Amino acid sequence: MGKVLGDILGFAAAVAISPLPIIAVILILATPRGRLNGVLFTVGWLLGLSALGAVMLAISSPAGATTHNHPATWVGALKLALGVLLVAFGARQWHRRPKDPSQAQLPKWMGAIDRLTPVKIFGLGVALAALNAKNAPLTIAAGAAIGSAGLPVGQQIGSLAIFVVIATLGLLTPLGVFLLGGERARNTLGNWKDWAAQHNVAVMAVLFFVLGLKLLGDGVSILTS
Questions:
Q1: 156 and 168 in contact (C-beta within 8 Å)?
Q2: Into how many domains does the chain fold?
Q3: How do residues 138-151 score in pLDDT, each as one tens digit?
């Protein structure tokens, strides 16, 4: 189990520091029902990550490892494909980053967050976790790594739970600051939002490039061994 945790911690950390969900939860906390909406968004995020990870466990576990406890060929091919995708996406993000960080623009849908109902806020959390093109490949890679390791079911579930908790720290931190910090929290969260908005593209470009190279290396290693 220790080796698996070593493989997935990098993916979990990358999901946790993804700037867009952090910006989204900070904007949600600033709405009139910020306390309720912030909790609903975070719960939706947790369920989205858990569901996507569980699907990958269900797919990869039955055919995950060979008799020698070596990951199956399809796992190597999946990691190779995800690695290519992340490297290409990272390069594209880096090329498209604004020359002046202060000119960075947030997605248009963020402007409507204050008008979303609690149910839609919950759905937004699920979607950003499970359907987001930036986070989903990392969760898929983590689920495949866990499922293909030949671990007992209990250890697979425990490994996925650890991944989900670490990947949610980026949301739990501003939520905790808001719930415990009172009025002073608004200035702190505002500064975090501004920094994340300005450096979102560059941060994700570097993360995807580095993790993409790791997945490429893992995929090649599995396919050639």
A1: no
A2: 1
A3: 898 888 888 877 78
Choose among 3, 74, 51, 24: nearest CA to 175.
24
Nearest residue to 212 (alpha-carbon basis) of 90, 121, 47, 129: 90
User: Could you tell me which of 124, 73, 98 has the C-alpha nearest to residue 202?
Assistant: 98
In angstroms, the CA 139 to CA 167 distance is: 9
Per the CB < 8 A criterion, the answer to whether 34 and 114 are in contact is no
* pLDDT attached to residue 167: 94
In sequence order, what are the beta bridge partners of 65? Answer: 71
| Better-scored residue on pLDDT, 125 or 148 | 125
Q: The tokens of 152 are what?
A: 């007992």
Q: Residue 71 belongs to what domain range? A: 2-224
Q: For residue 141, which of 70, 49, 67, 65 has the smallest C-alpha distance?
A: 49
What pLDDT, in 10s, does the model give residues 180-223?
Answer: 876 678 778 888 788 777 777 787 788 888 888 888 887 888 78
Q: State the amino acid at position 5 in one-letter form.
A: L
The residue type of 102 is S
